[in-house]
Design goal:
Blueprint lengths: L8 H4 L2 H4 L2 E6 L15 E4 L2 H12 L3 E6 L19 H6 L11 H19 E11 L4 H13 L3 E7 L17 E7 L13 H4 L4 E2 L5 E6 L18 E5 L5 E4 L8 E4 L15 H6 L4 E6 L4 E9 L11 E2 L6 H10 L13 H11 L5 E4 L6 H12 L4 E6 L3 H15 L7 H5 L6 E9 L1 H6 L6 H13 L14 E4 L3 E5 L5 H6 L4 H6 L7 E6 L6 H6 L2 E5 L4 H5 L1
Parallel strand pairs: 2-16, 2-17, 3-4, 3-15, 5-14, 15-16, 19-20, 20-21
Antiparallel strand pairs: 1-17, 4-6, 5-6, 7-8, 8-13, 9-10, 9-11, 12-13, 18-19
Helix pairs in contact: 3-5, 3-15, 5-6, 10-11, 11-12
């Protein structure tokens, strides 16, 4: 497989592995929940590369759908390359706006995307899907780098989303009316649900049977390409129409009994055509077939009663043309929540994200958006949950507006906006979220060298979050008993001191297990440098053992 080469690629290919794990610090005043937890809906403020790494211990392989809307790299977005890769070239790039005149802007964009895509792949479940919004500036580069990271055989589609039907007025030659969505799976077999038919399709079912069921008439004769008898000889046969009973009977015999009309598939030009169904299918569905004389064609034909089923879905095509996907619609929805147009340029419309999620997620799945922007993804999920379900969102936003726009939009959607035109938004859609800031890194190499060792509380906070996903209460920890907190499933204990000799010589022994506080009905999750107990002994003391983070002690060996 051909691989895309770009400046800096060799230096960022494994950069995601060197990114330090950071604490996720809960912010009660910015959250909208009674119980802060990593198991709640999440909004995280900070560099998404660091945030994605911090999410790995809790969410690796658990995300069903990822949607991201990264910078399009138009040269007008004022985005900066900010990844601290240890190399003089990247130091030169740091913090500088990437504009149209930057000859390395495509290289910088790819260097920014590669480590993030690799972490996103780790977070995505094997049967999950990732959708990425992109335009002409990077669509070709993105496809090639996705082929490399997610593998070419996992490519799903490149979709043209008609987001501006009139076309961009500033295009020099042909006004651009669309953006792209690139979709990949993660190696497994995703379950895809299709879309509900549009209203204009449903309106075609104008007829109603005696039981009140809607249906439409479809000619059983095949039309268009491949409609000749010789194209599919087995689909040429006759129907006998009983004038008295109005019943039709499929047959391959040319004999016509008295009182019957013979009907065969005849094209407009009078030549022999074929039916859409082979004869056995017609026999099985005979109750849905009837005959009618066509005065314009001066012949009889057979028709299918095609019933409308509210549960039926249709496969999306590679051209998405719905009005709900228009950029203008996204701005209207943003303004309806009490924001100003200039607060955020071109927010994505709810309809676009909704149709993505309807296609590939179930009602209890987790969805991640690591370029959260105006918070459309969370808005969409809350709306879908109101209709039924318990989907969960994780949003990550780098910019300072993570609280004032991203989270504030979610607050308004949950609590309601009295002046909103949307009736549902007036009352609010309900829901909760926990807001986190990225904290300090826990540095592997500083631990190994004995410099800047984290305190007991710092390590306790980190491992409690990553192991349980629950809120850490510093007041409950006890270094004397090694207790650091309690979750729904575990009592959690930690054997740790900011001392390298202690870390090298401390293990979970029989004495230490015996001296732990008496357990309740929960498992005891014990973190320690190593253990001298076998599995039977661990089971006897109701202990689940976990080594300290980052596999520090494997490196000692």
């Amino acid at each position: 497989m051909a691989q895309l080469q770009f400046k800096g690629k060799q230096l960022v290919q494994n950069h995601h592995l060197t990114v330090e794990y950071h604490e996720l610090i809960p912010q009660k005043d910015k959250s909208l929940t009674k119980h802060l937890s990593l198991n709640d809906n999440l909004i995280i403020h900070g560099d998404n590369l660091k945030a994605l790494k911090a999410l790995l211990p809790t969410y690796a392989g658990k995300i069903k759908c990822i949607y991201i809307d990264p910078p399009y790299n138009t040269g007008n977005e004022k985005w900066r390359y900010n990844d601290n890769v240890s190399h003089p070239m990247f130091k030169e790039w740091l913090g500088k706006v990437v504009d149209k005149d930057d000859l390395t802007r495509h290289d910088k964009w790819l260097c920014m995307m590669m480590p993030r895509l690799k972490l996103l792949k780790e977070l995505l479940s094997p049967n999950g899907l990732i959708f990425i919004s992109v335009d002409n500036n990077e669509v070709h580069n993105l496809r090639l780098i996705m082929d490399e990271i997610f593998e070419e055989e996992n490519y799903i589609s490149t979709i043209a989303n008609i987001n501006n039907p009139k076309g961009r007025s500033d295009d020099k030659y042909i006004p651009t009316a669309h953006e792209y969505l690139i979709a990949f799976k993660n190696g497994g077999k995703p379950i895809l649900f299709g879309w509900k038919p549009e209203d204009k399709v449903i309106r075609r079912y104008r007829k109603v049977d005696k039981n009140g069921n809607k249906w439409r008439e479809i000619d059983l004769r095949k039309t268009g390409e491949g409609d000749r008898r010789k194209d599919r000889p087995n689909m040429f046969y006759y129907f006998l129409f009983n004038k008295s009973t109005k019943e039709v009977t499929p047959t391959k015999k040319e004999f016509v009994p008295k009182g019957f009309v013979q009907i065969k598939p005849t094209k407009e030009d009078g030549t022999e055509g074929r039916w859409r169904w082979e004869i056995n299918t017609s026999k099985k569905n005979i109750s849905r077939l009837y005959a009618r004389y066509m005065p314009n064609r001066k012949t009889w034909s057979v028709f299918e009663m095609d019933y409308y089923n509210p549960e039926d879905t249709i496969k999306p095509t590679t051209a998405w043309t719905k009005k709900d996907f228009n950029s203008e619609r996204g701005t209207e929805q943003f303004i309806d929540l009490g924001f100003k147009k200039e607060d955020f340029p071109k927010p994505k419309p709810v309809g676009l994200i909704k149709h993505i999620l309807q296609f590939c997620t179930d009602e209890n799945d987790i969805i991640l958006d690591s370029f959260a922007g105006s918070g459309t993804t969370a808005h969409t999920i809350l709306e879908m949950n109101k209709e039924g379900g318990n989907r969960k969102f994780i949003l990550v936003e780098l910019e300072d507006y993570a609280d004032s726009i991203t989270a504030e939009r979610v607050r308004r959607v949950i609590k309601g906006v009295p002046n909103a035109e949307d009736e549902n938004l007036k009352k609010g859609l309900g829901g909760t979220f926990s807001y986190f800031e990225l904290g300090k890194p826990i540095e592997l190499y500083s631990i190994l060298s004995g410099k800047s060792l984290p305190t007991f509380t710092e390590i306790a906070r980190y491992i409690f979050y990553t192991a349980t996903g629950d809120e850490f209460d510093e007041k409950k920890i006890s270094e004397k008993t090694n207790f650091i907190g309690e979750s729904k499933d575990f009592e959690v204990y930690l054997f740790y001191k900011p001392d390298l000799d202690y870390l090298r010589n401390t293990a979970l022994t029989l004495d230490r297990a015996n001296n732990l506080p008496k357990y309740k009905n929960k498992k005891r999750l014990v973190f320690a440098p190593t253990k001298y107990l076998d599995q039977d002994q661990l089971d006897e003391y109701n202990i689940t053992f976990a080594q300290l983070p980052f596999e520090i002690y494997k490196l000692f060996k």
